[in-house]
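Can't paste images in this forum, so I'm doing it all in text. The chain is below; anyone willing to post the predicted structure tokens underneath?
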Amino acid sequence: MGYPTAYAKGARLLPDELTAPLEATLVRSLTEQELRRTLKVTTNLLTAEIELWNAALADRLRPALTQLTETE
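Text version of the structure:
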């Protein structure tokens, strides 16, 4: 896209369709429930991003990443 990347200086210039899903990854409080929610959203987005580039790798990583977000 040609935007500056140092220190995320071009992040505000990215289209909403790229940044809107990331809003759910922002931590709203430091409760365990909220931190787990944020981790789950973040790992789901990470897996989706990996899948765009390498579906086989995403399939291999998905179980381990999902396990990180499971409640004990």
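Residues 47 and 61 are 8 Å apart (CA to CA). The longest helix spans residues 32-53.
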